[in-house]
Amino acid sequence: MKKLLNRWTGPAPAAWLCWALALGAVVLAFLGAERAGVWMARPIMQVGVAFLMLVFFFVGVRAVLRRRFDSALLHIGCACVLAGWLMGRYAIRTSTAARPCTGSMVMVDGDESDRLWEGPMLDQYVGQLPFSVRLERFFVERYDRNSDDRNAGRNAPVREYRSRVTITEPGRPPYVVNIRVNEPAFVCGYHIYQMSWGNSTDQLGRPVVYTVLQFIRDPGLKLAYAGFILLLAGILIYAWRIFRIQGTQPREVPA
Amino acid sequence: MTVKMTVQGGLIYLTLVFFVATIIARRGGWRTIGNAFWGTGFVAAVASVIWRGLHTGHPPMQNLFEFFLCMAAALWPLSVLSRRHNGLDTTVQDALLGVLILMPAGFVFGEDVRRLPPALQSSLFIPHVGSYVAGYVLLARAALMALPLFKRDIAGDRLRQTETASRQTATIGFVLLTLGLLLGSLWGKICWGHYWQFDPKEMWSLATWLVYAGYFHERMVHGVRAPRVLAALLWTGLLFIVLTLTWINLSRLFVGMHNYA
Fold this sequence. Notes:
The complex is a heterodimer. Chain A is an alpha+beta fold. Chain A is built from seven helices and eight strands. In chain A, helix 4 runs antiparallel to helix 5 and helix 5 runs antiparallel to helix 7. The longest helix of chain B has 36 residues. The two termini of chain B are 18 Å apart. At the A-B interface, helix 2, helix 3, strand 4, strand 7 and helix 7 of A face helix 6 and helix 7 of B.
Protein backbone atom coordinates (compact mmCIF):
# COMPACT_ATOMS: atom_id res chain seq x y z
CA MET A 1 0.00 0.00 0.00
CA LYS A 2 2.74 2.43 1.01
CA LYS A 3 4.82 1.39 -1.99
CA LEU A 4 1.87 2.00 -4.29
CA LEU A 5 1.24 5.43 -2.78
CA ASN A 6 4.89 6.37 -3.16
CA ARG A 7 4.90 5.27 -6.77
CA TRP A 8 1.75 7.24 -7.60
CA THR A 9 2.98 10.42 -5.92
CA GLY A 10 6.52 10.21 -7.31
CA PRO A 11 8.03 12.42 -10.02
CA ALA A 12 6.93 10.23 -12.96
CA PRO A 13 3.16 10.62 -12.47
CA ALA A 14 3.86 14.24 -11.47
CA ALA A 15 5.37 14.86 -14.89
CA TRP A 16 2.26 13.38 -16.52
CA LEU A 17 0.10 15.55 -14.27
CA CYS A 18 2.07 18.57 -15.49
CA TRP A 19 1.36 17.69 -19.15
CA ALA A 20 -2.32 17.14 -18.35
CA LEU A 21 -2.61 20.47 -16.52
CA ALA A 22 -0.76 22.26 -19.33
CA LEU A 23 -3.23 20.79 -21.80
CA GLY A 24 -6.11 21.89 -19.57
CA ALA A 25 -4.68 25.42 -19.40
CA VAL A 26 -4.45 25.54 -23.20
CA VAL A 27 -8.06 24.37 -23.52
CA LEU A 28 -9.16 27.12 -21.11
CA ALA A 29 -7.13 29.64 -23.12
CA PHE A 30 -9.11 28.66 -26.24
CA LEU A 31 -12.37 29.13 -24.33
CA GLY A 32 -11.47 32.74 -23.55
CA ALA A 33 -11.31 34.48 -20.19
CA GLU A 34 -15.03 34.79 -19.58
CA ARG A 35 -16.10 31.24 -20.45
CA ALA A 36 -13.04 29.79 -18.71
CA GLY A 37 -13.99 31.70 -15.56
CA VAL A 38 -17.57 30.41 -15.72
CA TRP A 39 -16.31 26.88 -16.31
CA MET A 40 -13.88 27.05 -13.39
CA ALA A 41 -16.68 28.32 -11.11
CA ARG A 42 -18.52 25.01 -11.49
CA PRO A 43 -18.50 22.71 -8.44
CA ILE A 44 -16.90 19.82 -10.33
CA MET A 45 -13.85 21.94 -11.22
CA GLN A 46 -13.56 23.15 -7.66
CA VAL A 47 -13.63 19.58 -6.40
CA GLY A 48 -10.82 18.88 -8.86
CA VAL A 49 -8.81 21.86 -7.62
CA ALA A 50 -9.40 20.77 -4.01
CA PHE A 51 -8.12 17.29 -4.85
CA LEU A 52 -5.07 18.80 -6.53
CA MET A 53 -4.49 20.95 -3.44
CA LEU A 54 -4.58 17.87 -1.17
CA VAL A 55 -2.12 16.04 -3.43
CA PHE A 56 0.27 19.04 -3.39
CA PHE A 57 -0.06 19.26 0.38
CA PHE A 58 0.60 15.53 0.83
CA VAL A 59 3.68 15.65 -1.39
CA GLY A 60 4.89 18.78 0.40
CA VAL A 61 4.55 17.26 3.86
CA ARG A 62 6.30 14.10 2.73
CA ALA A 63 9.13 16.23 1.32
CA VAL A 64 9.47 17.89 4.74
CA LEU A 65 9.81 14.44 6.34
CA ARG A 66 12.48 13.58 3.76
CA ARG A 67 14.31 16.87 4.41
CA ARG A 68 13.82 18.04 0.82
CA PHE A 69 12.91 21.58 1.76
CA ASP A 70 12.90 23.08 -1.74
CA SER A 71 10.39 20.50 -2.91
CA ALA A 72 8.39 21.00 0.30
CA LEU A 73 8.21 24.78 -0.15
CA LEU A 74 7.25 24.45 -3.82
CA HIS A 75 4.47 21.93 -3.28
CA ILE A 76 3.06 23.53 -0.12
CA GLY A 77 3.26 26.90 -1.89
CA CYS A 78 1.15 25.52 -4.76
CA ALA A 79 -1.28 24.04 -2.21
CA CYS A 80 -1.57 27.43 -0.47
CA VAL A 81 -2.30 29.26 -3.73
CA LEU A 82 -5.00 26.74 -4.64
CA ALA A 83 -6.43 26.87 -1.10
CA GLY A 84 -6.53 30.67 -1.28
CA TRP A 85 -8.33 30.52 -4.60
CA LEU A 86 -10.84 28.01 -3.20
CA MET A 87 -11.40 30.25 -0.16
CA GLY A 88 -12.17 33.13 -2.49
CA ARG A 89 -14.62 30.99 -4.47
CA TYR A 90 -16.26 29.79 -1.23
CA ALA A 91 -16.65 33.39 -0.06
CA ILE A 92 -18.36 34.26 -3.36
CA ARG A 93 -20.66 31.26 -3.02
CA THR A 94 -21.67 32.09 0.54
CA SER A 95 -21.84 35.86 0.14
CA THR A 96 -25.08 37.58 1.18
CA ALA A 97 -26.63 40.96 0.53
CA ALA A 98 -25.36 41.99 3.97
CA ARG A 99 -21.76 41.07 3.14
CA PRO A 100 -21.26 40.98 -0.65
CA CYS A 101 -18.03 39.81 -2.30
CA THR A 102 -17.90 41.72 -5.56
CA GLY A 103 -19.93 44.50 -7.04
CA SER A 104 -19.68 47.89 -8.65
CA MET A 105 -21.28 51.29 -8.40
CA VAL A 106 -21.74 53.99 -11.01
CA MET A 107 -21.32 57.51 -9.70
CA VAL A 108 -21.25 61.09 -10.89
CA ASP A 109 -19.68 63.93 -8.91
CA GLY A 110 -21.47 64.39 -5.60
CA ASP A 111 -23.19 60.98 -5.43
CA GLU A 112 -23.10 59.02 -2.19
CA SER A 113 -23.94 55.32 -1.92
CA ASP A 114 -23.26 52.05 -0.13
CA ARG A 115 -25.11 49.73 -2.51
CA LEU A 116 -23.36 47.42 -4.98
CA TRP A 117 -24.62 46.34 -8.40
CA GLU A 118 -23.63 43.84 -11.07
CA GLY A 119 -24.52 42.72 -14.58
CA PRO A 120 -23.62 44.22 -17.96
CA MET A 121 -25.74 47.33 -17.30
CA LEU A 122 -24.99 47.30 -13.55
CA ASP A 123 -28.73 47.02 -12.79
CA GLN A 124 -28.81 43.86 -10.63
CA TYR A 125 -28.65 44.63 -6.93
CA VAL A 126 -25.91 42.70 -5.09
CA GLY A 127 -25.83 44.00 -1.55
CA GLN A 128 -24.82 46.66 0.89
CA LEU A 129 -21.34 47.70 2.01
CA PRO A 130 -20.45 48.20 5.69
CA PHE A 131 -19.34 51.76 4.79
CA SER A 132 -20.50 54.45 2.41
CA VAL A 133 -18.70 56.18 -0.43
CA ARG A 134 -19.20 59.71 -1.69
CA LEU A 135 -17.62 60.74 -5.00
CA GLU A 136 -16.13 64.19 -4.56
CA ARG A 137 -14.82 64.47 -8.08
CA PHE A 138 -13.79 62.29 -11.01
CA PHE A 139 -10.74 63.41 -12.98
CA VAL A 140 -9.68 62.32 -16.47
CA GLU A 141 -6.26 63.71 -17.32
CA ARG A 142 -4.79 63.44 -20.79
CA TYR A 143 -1.27 63.60 -22.18
CA ASP A 144 -0.24 66.72 -24.06
CA ARG A 145 -1.51 66.67 -27.61
CA ASN A 146 1.42 66.04 -29.98
CA SER A 147 1.86 66.32 -33.74
CA ASP A 148 0.70 62.73 -34.34
CA ASP A 149 -2.56 63.45 -32.52
CA ARG A 150 -3.10 66.66 -34.49
CA ASN A 151 -2.42 64.89 -37.79
CA ALA A 152 -4.90 62.15 -36.88
CA GLY A 153 -7.38 64.73 -35.59
CA ARG A 154 -7.91 63.08 -32.24
CA ASN A 155 -7.56 63.78 -28.55
CA ALA A 156 -4.37 62.78 -26.78
CA PRO A 157 -4.56 59.43 -24.94
CA VAL A 158 -5.57 59.39 -21.30
CA ARG A 159 -2.78 59.62 -18.73
CA GLU A 160 -4.78 59.14 -15.56
CA TYR A 161 -8.26 58.24 -14.28
CA ARG A 162 -8.80 59.29 -10.69
CA SER A 163 -11.83 59.21 -8.40
CA ARG A 164 -11.54 61.31 -5.28
CA VAL A 165 -13.95 59.80 -2.75
CA THR A 166 -14.88 60.34 0.87
CA ILE A 167 -15.23 57.14 2.87
CA THR A 168 -17.56 57.05 5.88
CA GLU A 169 -16.93 54.04 8.08
CA PRO A 170 -18.99 53.47 11.21
CA GLY A 171 -17.11 54.67 14.30
CA ARG A 172 -14.57 56.77 12.40
CA PRO A 173 -14.54 60.33 11.10
CA PRO A 174 -14.91 60.45 7.29
CA TYR A 175 -11.72 60.61 5.25
CA VAL A 176 -10.73 61.25 1.62
CA VAL A 177 -8.89 58.79 -0.62
CA ASN A 178 -7.83 58.93 -4.26
CA ILE A 179 -8.55 55.82 -6.31
CA ARG A 180 -6.51 55.44 -9.50
CA VAL A 181 -5.87 52.60 -11.90
CA ASN A 182 -3.05 50.56 -10.31
CA GLU A 183 -3.75 52.25 -6.98
CA PRO A 184 -6.80 50.69 -5.30
CA ALA A 185 -7.99 51.74 -1.87
CA PHE A 186 -8.49 49.21 0.93
CA VAL A 187 -11.43 49.74 3.29
CA CYS A 188 -13.04 47.24 5.73
CA GLY A 189 -11.72 44.21 3.84
CA TYR A 190 -12.72 45.60 0.42
CA HIS A 191 -10.34 46.66 -2.33
CA ILE A 192 -11.83 49.57 -4.28
CA TYR A 193 -10.80 49.79 -7.95
CA GLN A 194 -11.11 52.46 -10.60
CA MET A 195 -12.80 50.16 -13.08
CA SER A 196 -14.39 52.17 -15.87
CA TRP A 197 -15.83 55.53 -16.88
CA GLY A 198 -17.98 57.10 -19.55
CA ASN A 199 -20.03 60.01 -20.80
CA SER A 200 -23.76 60.26 -20.31
CA THR A 201 -26.49 62.80 -19.70
CA ASP A 202 -28.47 63.56 -16.56
CA GLN A 203 -32.28 63.94 -16.29
CA LEU A 204 -32.11 67.45 -17.69
CA GLY A 205 -30.07 66.34 -20.70
CA ARG A 206 -26.83 67.95 -19.53
CA PRO A 207 -23.64 66.00 -20.25
CA VAL A 208 -22.07 64.28 -17.24
CA VAL A 209 -18.99 62.11 -16.80
CA TYR A 210 -19.54 59.04 -14.68
CA THR A 211 -17.06 56.72 -12.98
CA VAL A 212 -17.46 53.04 -12.16
CA LEU A 213 -15.86 51.82 -8.95
CA GLN A 214 -15.45 48.11 -8.32
CA PHE A 215 -15.45 46.61 -4.82
CA ILE A 216 -13.85 43.22 -4.21
CA ARG A 217 -13.55 41.25 -0.97
CA ASP A 218 -11.33 38.18 -1.12
CA PRO A 219 -10.64 36.43 2.21
CA GLY A 220 -8.30 33.94 0.48
CA LEU A 221 -5.94 36.62 -0.79
CA LYS A 222 -3.49 36.41 2.13
CA LEU A 223 -3.23 32.65 1.77
CA ALA A 224 -2.56 32.96 -1.96
CA TYR A 225 0.14 35.59 -1.34
CA ALA A 226 1.67 33.35 1.34
CA GLY A 227 1.73 30.62 -1.31
CA PHE A 228 3.49 33.01 -3.73
CA ILE A 229 6.22 33.66 -1.15
CA LEU A 230 6.66 29.94 -0.39
CA LEU A 231 6.83 29.16 -4.13
CA LEU A 232 9.44 31.83 -4.72
CA ALA A 233 11.52 30.69 -1.74
CA GLY A 234 11.26 27.08 -2.92
CA ILE A 235 12.29 27.85 -6.49
CA LEU A 236 15.28 29.90 -5.30
CA ILE A 237 16.46 27.10 -3.00
CA TYR A 238 15.96 24.60 -5.84
CA ALA A 239 18.08 26.68 -8.24
CA TRP A 240 20.75 27.20 -5.60
CA ARG A 241 20.84 23.46 -4.89
CA ILE A 242 21.31 22.59 -8.54
CA PHE A 243 24.17 25.06 -8.86
CA ARG A 244 25.77 23.96 -5.60
CA ILE A 245 25.63 20.22 -6.22
CA GLN A 246 26.80 20.43 -9.79
CA GLY A 247 29.18 23.31 -9.24
CA THR A 248 31.18 24.56 -12.16
CA GLN A 249 32.64 21.15 -12.87
CA PRO A 250 30.70 19.56 -15.70
CA ARG A 251 31.73 16.04 -14.71
CA GLU A 252 30.06 15.83 -11.32
CA VAL A 253 26.45 15.28 -12.26
CA PRO A 254 24.40 13.11 -9.92
CA ALA A 255 21.89 10.98 -11.76
CA MET B 1 8.18 43.50 -44.66
CA THR B 2 9.26 47.09 -44.30
CA VAL B 3 12.68 48.66 -43.89
CA LYS B 4 12.85 51.29 -41.16
CA MET B 5 14.54 54.48 -42.40
CA THR B 6 14.93 55.93 -38.92
CA VAL B 7 17.65 56.16 -36.29
CA GLN B 8 15.92 53.33 -34.46
CA GLY B 9 15.98 51.19 -37.60
CA GLY B 10 19.63 52.07 -38.18
CA LEU B 11 20.59 50.93 -34.70
CA ILE B 12 18.69 47.66 -35.14
CA TYR B 13 20.36 46.97 -38.50
CA LEU B 14 23.76 47.85 -37.03
CA THR B 15 23.16 45.31 -34.25
CA LEU B 16 22.09 42.74 -36.83
CA VAL B 17 25.28 43.35 -38.87
CA PHE B 18 27.45 42.88 -35.77
CA PHE B 19 25.62 39.66 -34.84
CA VAL B 20 26.01 38.25 -38.34
CA ALA B 21 29.68 39.32 -38.33
CA THR B 22 30.09 37.47 -35.03
CA ILE B 23 28.74 34.29 -36.55
CA ILE B 24 30.90 34.60 -39.70
CA ALA B 25 34.07 35.43 -37.74
CA ARG B 26 33.59 32.60 -35.27
CA ARG B 27 32.77 30.05 -37.96
CA GLY B 28 35.84 31.26 -39.86
CA GLY B 29 38.03 30.58 -36.84
CA TRP B 30 38.80 34.19 -35.84
CA ARG B 31 37.89 33.83 -32.19
CA THR B 32 39.05 37.20 -30.83
CA ILE B 33 37.52 39.18 -33.68
CA GLY B 34 34.26 37.27 -33.26
CA ASN B 35 34.15 38.07 -29.54
CA ALA B 36 34.87 41.73 -30.29
CA PHE B 37 31.96 41.83 -32.76
CA TRP B 38 29.74 40.10 -30.19
CA GLY B 39 30.56 42.72 -27.53
CA THR B 40 30.09 45.59 -29.98
CA GLY B 41 26.76 44.11 -31.05
CA PHE B 42 25.71 44.22 -27.41
CA VAL B 43 26.64 47.90 -27.19
CA ALA B 44 24.56 48.58 -30.32
CA ALA B 45 21.61 46.59 -28.91
CA VAL B 46 21.74 48.54 -25.64
CA ALA B 47 21.99 51.78 -27.61
CA SER B 48 18.83 50.88 -29.54
CA VAL B 49 16.96 50.09 -26.29
CA ILE B 50 18.10 53.38 -24.73
CA TRP B 51 17.20 55.30 -27.89
CA ARG B 52 13.76 53.74 -27.86
CA GLY B 53 13.33 54.59 -24.16
CA LEU B 54 14.32 58.21 -24.73
CA HIS B 55 12.12 58.42 -27.81
CA THR B 56 8.97 57.04 -26.14
CA GLY B 57 9.60 58.53 -22.70
CA HIS B 58 8.79 55.33 -20.83
CA PRO B 59 10.55 52.00 -20.17
CA PRO B 60 10.70 50.33 -23.61
CA MET B 61 8.69 47.22 -22.72
CA GLN B 62 5.22 48.19 -23.88
CA ASN B 63 4.77 46.10 -27.03
CA LEU B 64 6.40 43.23 -28.86
CA PHE B 65 8.76 45.52 -30.78
CA GLU B 66 10.23 46.91 -27.56
CA PHE B 67 10.12 43.47 -25.88
CA PHE B 68 12.26 42.02 -28.70
CA LEU B 69 14.75 44.89 -28.49
CA CYS B 70 15.18 44.15 -24.78
CA MET B 71 15.60 40.44 -25.47
CA ALA B 72 18.41 41.15 -27.94
CA ALA B 73 20.15 43.35 -25.37
CA ALA B 74 19.88 40.65 -22.70
CA LEU B 75 21.73 38.06 -24.81
CA TRP B 76 25.36 39.08 -24.37
CA PRO B 77 25.47 39.26 -20.54
CA LEU B 78 23.64 35.95 -20.26
CA SER B 79 25.99 34.37 -22.79
CA VAL B 80 29.11 35.60 -20.96
CA LEU B 81 27.78 34.57 -17.53
CA SER B 82 26.87 31.10 -18.71
CA ARG B 83 30.25 30.60 -20.37
CA ARG B 84 31.94 31.57 -17.14
CA HIS B 85 29.71 29.21 -15.16
CA ASN B 86 29.69 26.01 -17.15
CA GLY B 87 32.53 26.46 -19.60
CA LEU B 88 30.38 25.92 -22.68
CA ASP B 89 30.97 28.49 -25.43
CA THR B 90 27.62 29.36 -26.99
CA THR B 91 28.54 32.63 -28.70
CA VAL B 92 27.60 31.47 -32.20
CA GLN B 93 24.18 30.12 -31.26
CA ASP B 94 23.49 33.16 -29.10
CA ALA B 95 24.34 35.46 -31.98
CA LEU B 96 22.08 33.35 -34.20
CA LEU B 97 19.31 33.69 -31.61
CA GLY B 98 19.93 37.44 -31.60
CA VAL B 99 19.51 37.58 -35.38
CA LEU B 100 16.26 35.58 -35.12
CA ILE B 101 14.98 37.93 -32.40
CA LEU B 102 15.92 41.13 -34.22
CA MET B 103 14.54 40.10 -37.63
CA PRO B 104 10.88 40.71 -36.67
CA ALA B 105 11.88 43.87 -34.75
CA GLY B 106 13.77 45.20 -37.76
CA PHE B 107 11.46 44.20 -40.59
CA VAL B 108 7.98 43.23 -39.33
CA PHE B 109 6.85 45.20 -36.29
CA GLY B 110 6.00 48.87 -36.61
CA GLU B 111 7.76 51.37 -34.38
CA ASP B 112 4.79 53.60 -33.58
CA VAL B 113 5.10 55.31 -30.23
CA ARG B 114 2.14 54.83 -27.95
CA ARG B 115 2.05 56.67 -24.69
CA LEU B 116 1.69 54.55 -21.59
CA PRO B 117 -1.98 53.90 -20.70
CA PRO B 118 -2.92 54.14 -16.98
CA ALA B 119 -3.03 50.35 -16.64
CA LEU B 120 0.71 50.08 -17.42
CA GLN B 121 1.80 52.87 -15.08
CA SER B 122 2.99 50.69 -12.25
CA SER B 123 6.19 49.93 -10.38
CA LEU B 124 5.64 46.28 -11.35
CA PHE B 125 5.89 47.05 -15.09
CA ILE B 126 9.68 46.67 -15.36
CA PRO B 127 10.07 43.71 -12.94
CA HIS B 128 7.21 41.74 -14.53
CA VAL B 129 8.19 42.26 -18.16
CA GLY B 130 11.91 42.25 -17.40
CA SER B 131 11.86 38.84 -15.75
CA TYR B 132 9.92 37.47 -18.72
CA VAL B 133 12.46 39.00 -21.16
CA ALA B 134 15.43 37.41 -19.38
CA GLY B 135 13.53 34.18 -18.65
CA TYR B 136 12.48 33.66 -22.28
CA VAL B 137 15.99 34.34 -23.55
CA LEU B 138 17.48 31.87 -21.06
CA LEU B 139 14.94 29.18 -21.90
CA ALA B 140 15.54 29.66 -25.63
CA ARG B 141 19.25 29.28 -24.98
CA ALA B 142 18.60 26.16 -22.90
CA ALA B 143 16.78 24.62 -25.88
CA LEU B 144 19.62 25.52 -28.25
CA MET B 145 22.21 24.15 -25.81
CA ALA B 146 20.26 20.89 -25.64
CA LEU B 147 20.52 20.36 -29.41
CA PRO B 148 23.54 17.98 -29.18
CA LEU B 149 21.47 15.73 -26.89
CA PHE B 150 19.47 14.65 -29.95
CA LYS B 151 22.61 13.04 -31.45
CA ARG B 152 22.74 9.24 -31.20
CA ASP B 153 26.48 8.98 -30.51
CA ILE B 154 26.67 11.43 -27.61
CA ALA B 155 27.88 9.83 -24.36
CA GLY B 156 30.11 10.24 -21.34
CA ASP B 157 31.53 13.60 -20.33
CA ARG B 158 30.22 15.41 -23.38
CA LEU B 159 26.66 14.22 -22.64
CA ARG B 160 26.94 15.21 -19.00
CA GLN B 161 28.42 18.62 -19.73
CA THR B 162 25.79 19.44 -22.35
CA GLU B 163 22.97 18.19 -20.15
CA THR B 164 24.25 20.09 -17.12
CA ALA B 165 24.67 23.33 -19.04
CA SER B 166 21.20 23.19 -20.58
CA ARG B 167 19.59 22.19 -17.29
CA GLN B 168 21.29 24.96 -15.32
CA THR B 169 20.30 27.52 -17.92
CA ALA B 170 16.73 26.20 -17.89
CA THR B 171 16.70 26.37 -14.08
CA ILE B 172 17.57 30.06 -14.00
CA GLY B 173 15.06 30.66 -16.79
CA PHE B 174 12.44 28.81 -14.77
CA VAL B 175 13.15 30.93 -11.70
CA LEU B 176 12.59 34.07 -13.78
CA LEU B 177 9.47 32.55 -15.37
CA THR B 178 8.06 31.88 -11.89
CA LEU B 179 8.99 35.37 -10.75
CA GLY B 180 7.34 36.89 -13.83
CA LEU B 181 4.19 34.81 -13.34
CA LEU B 182 3.88 35.70 -9.64
CA LEU B 183 4.64 39.39 -10.19
CA GLY B 184 2.10 39.41 -13.02
CA SER B 185 -0.43 37.81 -10.71
CA LEU B 186 0.25 40.40 -8.02
CA TRP B 187 -0.03 43.19 -10.59
CA GLY B 188 -3.29 41.68 -11.85
CA LYS B 189 -4.70 41.93 -8.33
CA ILE B 190 -3.60 45.56 -8.03
CA CYS B 191 -4.69 46.63 -11.49
CA TRP B 192 -7.57 44.39 -12.61
CA GLY B 193 -8.98 43.33 -9.25
CA HIS B 194 -8.10 39.65 -9.23
CA TYR B 195 -4.83 37.74 -9.23
CA TRP B 196 -6.09 35.14 -11.70
CA GLN B 197 -8.67 35.90 -14.36
CA PHE B 198 -8.22 33.02 -16.82
CA ASP B 199 -7.01 35.48 -19.42
CA PRO B 200 -5.70 33.51 -22.47
CA LYS B 201 -2.19 34.85 -22.07
CA GLU B 202 -2.22 33.97 -18.39
CA MET B 203 -3.31 30.45 -19.27
CA TRP B 204 -0.60 30.05 -21.95
CA SER B 205 2.05 31.33 -19.53
CA LEU B 206 0.81 28.84 -16.95
CA ALA B 207 0.94 26.07 -19.56
CA THR B 208 4.53 27.08 -20.41
CA TRP B 209 5.41 27.04 -16.72
CA LEU B 210 3.84 23.58 -16.36
CA VAL B 211 5.79 22.23 -19.35
CA TYR B 212 9.06 23.27 -17.71
CA ALA B 213 7.87 21.97 -14.33
CA GLY B 214 7.24 18.66 -16.11
CA TYR B 215 10.76 18.81 -17.57
CA PHE B 216 12.29 19.08 -14.10
CA HIS B 217 10.15 16.19 -12.81
CA GLU B 218 11.11 14.12 -15.86
CA ARG B 219 14.78 14.85 -15.18
CA MET B 220 14.27 13.49 -11.66
CA VAL B 221 12.79 10.28 -13.04
CA HIS B 222 15.35 9.43 -15.70
CA GLY B 223 18.49 11.34 -14.78
CA VAL B 224 20.69 11.65 -17.86
CA ARG B 225 19.61 8.24 -19.17
CA ALA B 226 17.02 9.75 -21.52
CA PRO B 227 18.76 12.80 -23.04
CA ARG B 228 16.53 12.93 -26.11
CA VAL B 229 13.38 13.17 -23.98
CA LEU B 230 14.87 16.06 -22.00
CA ALA B 231 15.94 17.90 -25.14
CA ALA B 232 12.51 17.34 -26.70
CA LEU B 233 10.86 18.76 -23.57
CA LEU B 234 13.05 21.87 -23.66
CA TRP B 235 12.05 22.36 -27.30
CA THR B 236 8.37 21.89 -26.41
CA GLY B 237 8.79 24.62 -23.80
CA LEU B 238 10.39 26.89 -26.40
CA LEU B 239 7.48 26.15 -28.76
CA PHE B 240 5.07 27.29 -26.04
CA ILE B 241 7.11 30.47 -25.51
CA VAL B 242 7.11 31.25 -29.23
CA LEU B 243 3.36 30.63 -29.38
CA THR B 244 2.78 32.86 -26.35
CA LEU B 245 4.81 35.64 -27.93
CA THR B 246 3.36 35.44 -31.43
CA TRP B 247 0.04 33.65 -31.85
CA ILE B 248 -1.51 34.62 -28.52
CA ASN B 249 -0.42 38.22 -28.84
CA LEU B 250 -1.30 38.82 -32.45
CA SER B 251 -4.24 36.51 -33.17
CA ARG B 252 -7.77 37.74 -32.81
CA LEU B 253 -8.69 34.28 -31.53
CA PHE B 254 -7.49 35.00 -28.00
CA VAL B 255 -9.23 38.11 -26.73
CA GLY B 256 -8.10 39.06 -23.29
CA MET B 257 -6.75 41.78 -21.07
CA HIS B 258 -3.16 41.54 -22.32
CA ASN B 259 -3.99 43.39 -25.54
CA TYR B 260 -1.26 46.00 -25.33
CA ALA B 261 1.00 44.70 -28.07
